Model the fold of this input.
Amino acid sequence: MSILIDENTRAIVQGITGSQGSFHTKLMLEYGTKIVAGVTPGKGGSEVHGVPVYDSVKEALRHHDANASIIFVPAPFAMDAALEAVENLELVVIITEGIPVHDSMKIKAYAERCGSRVIGPNTAGIISPGKSKLGIMPAQVFTQGNVGVVSRSGTLAYEIALAITEAGYGQSTLVGIGGDPVVGTSFVEVLQMFEEDEETSAVVLIGEIGGDAEERAAEFIKTMSKPVIGYVAGLTAPPGKRMGHAGAIISRGKGTAEGKIQALEKSGARVARIPQEIPELLKEVLR
Amino acid sequence: MNLYEYQGKEIFARYGIPVPRGEVASSPEEARRIAEKLGTSVVLKAQVLAGGRGKAGGVKFADTPKEAARLAKDLLSMKLKGFKVEKVLVEQKLGIRREIYAGITIDRAEGKAVFMVSGEGGVDIEEVAERSPEKIFSRHVDSFVGFYPYMARELASGLGLDSESFKKVSDVLLKLYRVFSEKDAQLAEINPLVIAEEGVFAADAKIVIDEDALFRQDFEKKARGLPYVELDGSIGCIVNGAGLAMSTMDTLKHLGGEPANFLDIGGGAGSEVMREALLRVAAHPKVKVIFINILGGITRCDEIARGILAARQGIALPLVVRFRGTNEEEGIALLRDAGIGVERDMIAAAKLAIEKSKEAGR
Done:
């Protein structure tokens, strides 16, 4: 087992003919991900790395059996692509960065209505090492194992996955929930999935300043039976400044790294001060 | 992107939300002319993008045009909360009976817009929220359903208004939601919404526009540049990804170093972005060493290496480079040929950067 994706995941790539879409389709195929079709309106009938391209998701589904989509469509057109996806598929991963927040709210609302799960936007995606990769992460830092990882940030998650891998552990699944203020799936929802996943023995939660997603996660961690290790980036961040991710702003003393670390520690999670401390804490909790 | 009060009020007026009569002045003489034209006592409000303006002395009242000119001169020479005052809004002074709060923002946890009102508007609204949250009425708005008159009435019904003000306030709430939605706002706030002898008016306007929506909104676009925040330390940082960039700063600090900045080159940065980043960080006078920490996913280490090589001539500072991930071998080879060593481990690289920053400090 693993969560969200595995060897039975059959995905379509929306925006497959763009440079990022095409580049990462190649890498996902090399990893062994089952990419059954691509969608780019107006490019139906062509092929990208041997994957047939269609003009719409509906048309792709007439010819192929798919259960997930990964979206690389540029921000101005991403809402259209995402609504099309959630209407037709149970899992939708939105890689696109810079989607207006009003669009993200609509995508989230429609996904709930359609019973579809959205990961992102502004995410590195999902990887269940050894089984499937629906994302843009470098495959070489991951290895199959029993540590579930959930993160708001992309490259920081790779860094931590790398530390886990180099220490001799591996990941059941890594989920990037996305760095935007409004995302389709929250920390809590992913923690719940890891709690129920037989293959996951411990969970690493990677947070950062801004918002209260970590504090909410901490409330849920109190109810979990599996050990959780937390890490929060942004201890040195000055307040009131935008630190890249739209989400990463501390305002009025709320959403600080200290506050989040305290909340996590209170919940019973162990908290690492630097990413490379995580393997040591894993060793302790997995004993 | 924050809008000035006068810009917010221009938008309100276009959407039919009543605002006090007034105009914006850049000089005392202009302020005098506006006050004369208004023919009433006036309020002068410094235009800065900071809260707590009234308490900081940025709002003045004048009974004559002459006094308006004098006070405008004071305001225009002020610095408020670190912002230089360049414009003053001169408006008719209202006979205020009550101050209401109305604001819409985004509830990140719910992923929905949330509309809040309170009968106790004004400068102390945050205190009200802390002290007596029961005095704030709120509701979420489903972005597919939208905001309807009954929702506005429901919100306004808690405010204890007479029937005429109730109708007017409900109407303002409805229009405020249209502003929020159609202008891609992250925040649309009226505090206070004034019940005055002359009617109901938005006496202030605070609108924050989502910068990600500027491609479809008609606002002046500022060049965005790379996300960069300056600190006091000596180790310049260039990192791909905001989370890893913050973590790199924290790690340096944890290991005894002092980060000089936050800089995220983003995902998939090419050599030109890298070159720009290097020049940016090198321009910070306190920087003694530059630490480039790249864990390539969508970003390719060879592209970054090309950017480093392109900018290197102009930079005398020592560089510590860490490459891992996509095309790391190619990147390492490119820099090795130019005599630049590359680390693969983040901690080893961080320690090296700290060592070099201390050597240079001596």
Notes: Residues 163-182 of chain B form the longest helix (20 residues).
